[in-house]
Structures are given as structure tokens and as C-alpha cells.
Amino acid sequence: MELLRTNLSRVRIPEPTNRIYKHECCISFHTSRSEGGLFVDMNTFLAFGKDYVGWNFEKTGNPVYLHIKQTKKPIPEDRPLKKPTLLAIGIDGGFDNQEPEYDETYSIVILPDYATFSFPSVALPEKVRLAVDAILIAEGAERKEQIASWTADKKQISEHALTLKQIDNGVIIPPSGWKCAKCDKTENLWLNLTDGMILCGRKLWDGSGGNNHAIEHYNETHYPLAVKLGTITSDLEGADVFSYPEDVSVTDPLLADHLAFFGIDFSSLQKTEMTTAEKELDQNTNFDWNRIQESGQEVESLFGPGYTGLTNLGNSCYLAATMQVIFSTHSFCSRYYKNLSLKTAFDIAPADPTVDLNTQLTKLAHGLLSGKYSIPAVQNDDVANAVESSSSAKQEGIRPRMFKAVIAASHPEFSTMRQQDALEFFLHFIDQVERVNSGNPEADPARSFKFGIEERLQCPSGKVAYNKRNDYILSLNIPLEKATNKKELEEFHKLKAQKEAEGKELSPDEIVRPRVPLSDCLDSFSHPEEVQGFYSTALKARTTAIKTTGLTTFPDYLVLHMRKFVMETGWVPKKLGVYIDVDDVIDIRHMRSEGLQPGEELLPEDAPGGEEESTKLLPNEDIVSQLASMGFNHLHCQKAAINTSNVGVEEAMNWLLSHMDDPDIDAPIHKEAKNEVDPSKVATLVSFGFDEELACKALKASGGDIEKATDWIFNPTAAASGPSNMDATSSSGPAVEATLSDGDGKYRLIGLVSHMGTSTQCGHYVAHVYKDGRWVIFNDDKVGVSRNPPKDMAYLYFYERIQS
Description:
By secondary structure, the chain is α+β, with helices and mostly antiparallel strands. Helix content is 27%, strand content 18%. The strands form six sheets. Strands 13, 17, 21, 23, 24, 25, 26 and 27 form an eight-stranded mixed beta sheet that branches.
């Protein structure tokens, strides 16, 4: 006890504002349930596994630790199953996933000799007792940052409910025996509260559900509210009312009157259908992995190095799928696993490694690639049974809570528990990795994805201008007119029309989707296109230019993004049902741009006092008006037109949908000359101690962003390589950036990120990775051999350049 008293100065009683980690090691995925338990530093309140607590003692000299160890309790055979009533985890009414219960024990440990004192004990110094009590009572930082809950928002009263006009057409709804007015569906039926039409609901992505007749009726009539038959009981609050204009389940405070209009006595009705929320809950409860991902085939589970699953933290599959593919690349594997040990990463980490991206990436890399956590989950301690059935066994996977907290800290959407777009996450992740490695660009693994793009603009004078920029993804339109199965599609549409006329539905086997070769998608990227409103400094007027696009460098890894969202009736963006015929090996050498060619003449530079910007575009008003008619903000529509060079409505819509959350989306379109900078921003940089001329130059180079301008001042080369707006250039050649990798244009497919659902903000993401000579499916914490990878259905394709 005297040893403990001599070290009391290194013990702190945590304040309410202190972040306390007590559920997971900050540099590994060890928990209090792991062998050896967890050791909580009673000075910094960071937690360490038994293999790592010694490193912390060496680095900080902090000797006093609270040791927490959990031991599994036997599970009673008669333990009842609880049916969830909320789509949530970890709260009353949420999922009871039959997690075993644990006994938790505590002790005080003093390093380096691991002297141990029992807790609780009245013999312990009061300061230690108070500190331990505060640690145990406090909510762990891990749970504060990543609570696994996705409880749906409370339904709001519809703006259409109080003013709903109902048509007196004599319709009386019987209490039972309902059927869709346009087909034979007798389930998933919706009563339109305006005209009394009974129609079936939406067709779900897996082929189940209705035939879309209710939503089609809304598109034709714009009657806003419908109630799901079978959900109406004497408790009207439980009825499922949907507002089509608001695209959400709502509350109708006048539902009793609206139902009575069609002769419905709700007090006598019994519930026979699930509400939308209950159906969502049921689908999550009965999630059938094999049916969704591998067409019901038996999947052989895989374990060992490189085959570690990522546990879903609550709508985090977009993160899991993306990171599995990223850590299958040599660049990230080498940077954060092969060439960086956990010990080195911890030694060079800041005082709090939980907020350091490089440390958490190293932790994640070692968790995924070491194989330490990729072992069959043992049920009820039946080790023998787990070994015998390892081919079909599951693994617990690792929970990337600290990594998600760090990578999402600067992003308002990724820090939520909502589903996100895997493409947006990939771009955000790459940007953050590039930032933390800006001081050492040679070690930056994000460079392996970065490439140069060059646009050639030719005006009617015959003179040309070249614009250059860098990017990390090649976003491809899907030219449906290039479909290779046009005859089958024609026959399918005839069959579909015939079935609809007969009131019958198509079976999943009868559905035919367009098949478009990837080569045609790549060709569409570089195909010449017209640019309206281009200002020609040669003609001194706005005109139509011809734009062609190519790549100035071929990166180590090429990411292809398929634009699968189009506009349908009512200008509603819908997911495109299309298959992409993908080759395992592609050759894009023909897409290289060589810059100014012999015989070409560059457009002259602007004369003083001339047009404000030769390459500045005015938004095409036809495009703007069409987008605005869909309900988009007029300023946003103008930016979409400008940023897609006025090519067309579909391109502008794609840009708009992917930039809705940009922090500067509401900023006005700048009218000032391109050499002007905001004097207030110059003054801010000058107040930091920088020279005014240098401040102006940095702001021009960074588009007026103060943070990027500061990065540019300290590291102009790396800053220049970052994403930027396209700048017109008079260069006579490609001017390839020295830091960009380049090589031959032949690539091999190594990874897919596939998406299921009607929108990138809902549904589910899965990764397929080619490793060790076979395709492997990563579906959150489930890892197995893929017998039929969905190469024609992916959202993102990852290609590796073949080294010549």
C-alpha cells in the first residue's frame, strides 16, 4: 500500500469534461473481455490491453492503472427471447441479440512490477477510491462517440393533412377483401385519401413488395396522402400514413375524418399488415446475407490474416466495404502495416492517440491484416464444435469505433449514424489521409489513387485552351444507347406491357435489364462534347466550344464510379437498373492526353480590361430552369450547370446530388476578377505573421480558402497537388505533376463496392476483393469465399495498374 501512496501524485480524479476510455484499447482492439483485460491509465484515462500497457508506462511514466476484467457468465438454457419493438441497439425495446452477460472485476495495478490491490477496498487511499468510482460511473468516450443506435425520428404532422381535399365519387371501402385496382395484389395495399383508390405499394429492390401502382397514381394525380390498409385499428396512431410529396411516413391528425369519408369505421378494423417502420424492422431482423449477396449459395467462411470482418456500428457498412478494399492495396498495406509497427505508431503519436488519424489507421490496419482477431466466434465455449464447423462459422470481427470517430470528426454527415454514400466517404477519407501526410508526401498512400485530368477546349476559331486538374475517381456516365441486349429489352418491354394490361406481375426471372460494356462507359468519358457559353478570347465573344477529356497520368489504383442515378417521371432521381459488362483487365492507354500538339495554337490571354475570365462560363438557363422546376435551389442549379460546363441536365443533376452537402454550396457565385482576393482573408493571414504578398499568392492558389492557403504557405508543392478548380493553361505539354505516379495504362480488377437499395443514403454496401487467387466477399463481419462476385452490379470498381 505504501507503493500506491508514493504514486498518488500520478492519480487524477476525472472531471466531467474528461474523455474516459474503458471499453477498448486505444492502439489495438483488445477489450476488457480479452485475455488480460484492460488497463486504464489513472492519469490520462486511456485504456490499454495487457500487451500494450507497458508501452504507455515507458512513454509517459504513469504507473497507476485501473484493471478491468470481464468474465462470461453461463447462459441459462431457458433464457427467453425478446422481440424488438424499436429499430435500435442498446436501448429498451431494441434488439436483444442474445449477447452473453459478464461478471466484471476491478483492481489497482502499479507498473512496472504489476503490484496489485483489490478494489473495492477501504484500505485504498481516498483519492484512488474517488478516482475509480468516477471512472466507473462515467459514460465511456467510445460509447459517447459511437453509440450503436439508429432509432427512427418521430413522425411529423403532414403539411397536407389539414388542407386535404377529398373527392366525393361515391367510393365506399369495405372492411376486408381489398385488392389493387390495377393488378392482382392483395397485400401491401394503400388507400389514397383523396379519391379512395386502392393500389399496391412500391416494388422492393429484391423483387418483393408491390408493382408501384400507388406511387404511379400519385405521379399522375398528385394526390398527396395514402394510408396502408391493414395497419388501421382503433389506435389510429399506429396507422401507416405516407406523404408522397414529403417522401416520408407522417401523422394525419384528421385521419378519422378522412377514413369516415369513405365509410371506414376504424374502430372495427383489425391489424393485418405491418407498418413501414415494422417492415423495416422485420427486414433488419431477418436479414438474409446469402440471398442478398450470393444468390443463396452456401458461403465458405474464411479466417486468418487479411480476412477480418468489420462489425456494423449501425449503418456503417459504407465504411466497412470501402476500408476492406482500401486495405487490400499495396500502398495502404505497406504504409500502415508492413512498414509501421503498432509500437512505432504509438511512440510517435500525440498524447491522445485516439484523435490521431495515422495512429488509428495503423490500429485498423493491424486489426484487419494481422489475423489476430479473425477467428471463429465460439458459442457457449464449445471450442470443439467451432473447430469442426469452421467452414460455416462466423467471426466477431472488430469494431472500428475510434477510427470512425476520427475520420468523421470534421464531417457533419459521417459523424451521424445515418447511412452514407460510399463514394463520398472514399473521397473524404482520401482527402484526410493526404492532409495528415502533407509533410511527407512520399509516404502518402493516397497518392496511389491520384491522377491528372486534362480538358482540351477548341473554339470555332480553331484555337485551343487546356484545363488541368487532379482527381481520385473517374466518374462515368452509362450510355444506355450502347446496350448490347436491345432485342431482349424490346421483348421484355412488350411482355411487361402485356402483363400490366392483364393485371399480372412479372416474375424476377422475367425481368431484363440493359447490359452496357464498361468500354463504352470509358469512351463516353473522353467523347467530344459541346460546351455552351464558352468565351473565346480569339473571337471576343461567347460561343460553343468542343471539349475532349483525357488523363495526363495513370495512377497505381484507378477507381471507377458508375453514375447509376437518372431522372424519371416527375424529375425524380431514381437508381438505374443496369448491368455493366466488366473485363478483369482493361487498357486505357488511348485515354492519355498529350497536351498541346504540333500545329495547335493556344487561345490568347485576356487583354487588360477585357472579358473578366476567358474560361468563365455563364450557366445555361435551360438547364437551370429544368433543375429549378424539380424544386432545387436556383443558386445551386446555376452552380451545377457551370461546374458541368453546361453539358446537359443529367450531368448537372449528378453534380448537384453529389454536392448538396458542400460547405460552400450556398456561397454566391464570384463575379470578381480571378486575380482578386478577399482583403479580410489577406488581413487574417497577415495577422498570423505572413507577408502580404505571400498571403495573396497563397489565397489565389487555394481558391480563397484560408486553411488551404496556410497549408500552401508551409508546403506549396503538396498543396498544389491537391484538388483544385480547373485553371486554363498555356502550357505546351501535359506538365505532369512530379508527385503523381504514372505508368502503363493496363489495369486488373481487384475490388468492388456494391450497393443495394434505391438510394446511396439507404440500403446496404458490400465489398468483394480479389486476393490469394480468389474472390472474397466482405459483408460487415462476415467474410467468405465468393462464388459469384457481382461484377456487373458494382457501384465502385477498383483497378490495380499492371506493372510492365
